[in-house]
């Protein structure tokens, strides 16, 4: 049976989308395909220079596409609030929480959070909450939060979420990606006016794998990660298919979509998630902690 491809994306004329981390990798290809199928797309990027380069490249690849460039640093809640204020006019039909960092040496965000948890989870939690009025203004809004197979290794350490007592970069990444998955499921439970799903790319060649070694100045690991991408990984365009499926296909709220071949590569499909991802107690506790840390509350819909 033929697998789902970008050619199966329906016409999106008249729909508005925001994709975080759209300047490269999976985010770039997600934004490109949404735009090619008629959506008005905001590329939410941290680097103005890289964002502009991606914008220009996308304009050339999709002539006539309705694109806008927005400045967003998920590691700075001031930036998150400013972005939401600029781009929060509704309706917003599709929000793809894609941007992220992976396996970095311990760093702190502008607000003092551990960088991986702060960027991958808390930044997107705040952004989604601030854009909630725009999402509610859409007829059938969709929020896609990008997680990872590393969520299976994750554990939420509520006694040390910021890794202040003990920090291990891969454990911190697994925790952040598990938090993404729990958030997607909890959002779907709490905000029935929209559909919230998760997606993960499997093993896709992006710049994430080499960012950590480069920050550490580890040339050997940098080269090894680059070789692994070249030899074993599927392309970033293929890695974007689960996100695109989750954003545009007929999906189940609270589910996760990833590659069908061992969740490693291949066409997108609904995939199994770690048992802890569906635990209501973890979802409630993470939600409460996230509201407290970010200062962003999710107000109930008006009756």
Automatic annotation (TrEMBL):
Pfam families recorded: adh_short (PF00106)
NCBIfam families xref list: PRK05854.1, PRK06197.1
Species the sequence originates in: Actinomadura monticuli
Keyword presence, NAD: no
InterPro entries linked: NAD(P)-bd_dom_sf, SDR_fam
Protein's UniProt name: Oxidoreductase
CDD domains named among the record's database cross-references: retinol-DH_like_SDR_c_like
Superkingdom of this protein's organism: Bacteria
Keywords: Oxidoreductase
